[in-house]
Amino acid sequence: MVVTTDDIETVAVIGAGEMGRGIGAVAALAGYDVVINDIDKDQLAEAHDQIEWSYGKSVESDAITQTAADDALNRVSFTTEFETAVGNADFITEAAVEQQSVKEDIFADLDEAAPSTAILATNTSGLNITRLAEVTDRPGQVLGTHWFNPPMLMDLVEVVMTEHTPDRVVDTAEALVEDFGKTPIRCQKDVPSFIVNRLMRPYGEEPAWMVYRGEHSMEAIDSAMKFSEGFPMGPFELADYTGAIQLRVEGAEDHLEDERPLSYETDVCPLLYQLYDKGRYGRKTDAGYYDYSDRDEPEISVDTGQAFDPLLVWAPIVNEAAKMVQHDVASVEDVDTGAKLGGNWPQGPFEKADEVGADAILSRLTDVASRHESTNKVAETLPCELLVQKAKHNELFYE
């Protein structure tokens, strides 16, 4: 027997870092008793202070009342004792360091210590959830709940199934997310990077190849995507902000060894290795694609990108989105919702495809793929069957 939404009273969070304490704060504010566990007492003390601070900011902005903040904070407890944290929990979210082996050890311990009815969730942004499920004796009660940072402010949560997860368990998790005041989208298969980060990958990578081949400048691409298309940041500015250069290079081997559906088998753009070898990881090192030694933000003018065709960036994104729908990873609606709420994009990839026509996307994508003939990336950029059929029959993704 597994808990249903009506049964859930106590939520436990493993890990008191930025994500863990944020998830706990949201759950407590929604009326749940919350226990946050960490092996580090100082981390727990900081988590308490940060939750109190975030509630205070919400009170200042009139998002909640002081009474609601006080009541929520009183519902949160903190402990270094693992068994105490999870022993009476109905729903447990692991939010520890993003390392597969560490998370597998935690899930093995959770399986021993948590009630047999409890649902076990992980906040990973793309690690193998199936392997986490299979270290337990309750694989059907394990799933992903990928929150976006900061949890108090970001509206989206990706709820990720594995082949072991029955619909009733994911339905319960989605209903809980909604009760938290957040918007769930369903990732129906455990694929690398799930939904939103799969869209972010071509947004950053195809522009890097264009610059590496000398076809366009960083400034032109960033200008076009930011000012013409309405993205919060262009792909290079965003990569520097998130530290994507380091993450992509250091994570390349892990992706190649990933046996899940739709795993990546493509070359990393040599431009990223060149920057990585120079220690240019982004803003945190004062240099990435751009130099930040004497400025906080890159200088990108509105006019620089007027000659650049944004569909060259959109096309691989739409193709990746169409692959997810074709392979039953996610629905059209959930992909677009994820892009807008998780990435703060001005519109979803399918909304863009319907706006310009699938034939226009297919034309640009064919051009992009032809430029990758000497790399492993050509297979990734070839148009998927669903996109080809939409273009052939002049069909919309939203009928």
From TrEMBL:
This is 3-hydroxyacyl-CoA dehydrogenase NAD-binding domain-containing protein. Pfam families: 3HCDH (PF00725), 3HCDH_N (PF02737). Residues 194-292, 314-396 form the 3-hydroxyacyl-CoA dehydrogenase C-terminal domain. PANTHER family: 3-HYDROXYACYL-COA DEHYDROGENASE FAMILY PROTEIN, 3-HYDROXYBUTYRYL-COA DEHYDROGENASE. InterPro entries: 3-OHacyl-CoA_DH_NAD-bd, 3HC_DH_C, 6-PGluconate_DH-like_C_sf, 6PGD_dom2, NAD(P)-bd_dom_sf. GO terms for molecular function: oxidoreductase activity. Residues 10-190 form the 3-hydroxyacyl-CoA dehydrogenase NAD binding domain. One of its GO terms (biological process) is monocarboxylic acid metabolic process. Keywords: Oxidoreductase. The keyword Cell cycle does not apply. The lineage of its organism: Archaea, Methanobacteriati, Methanobacteriota, Stenosarchaea group, Halobacteria. It comes from the Archaea.
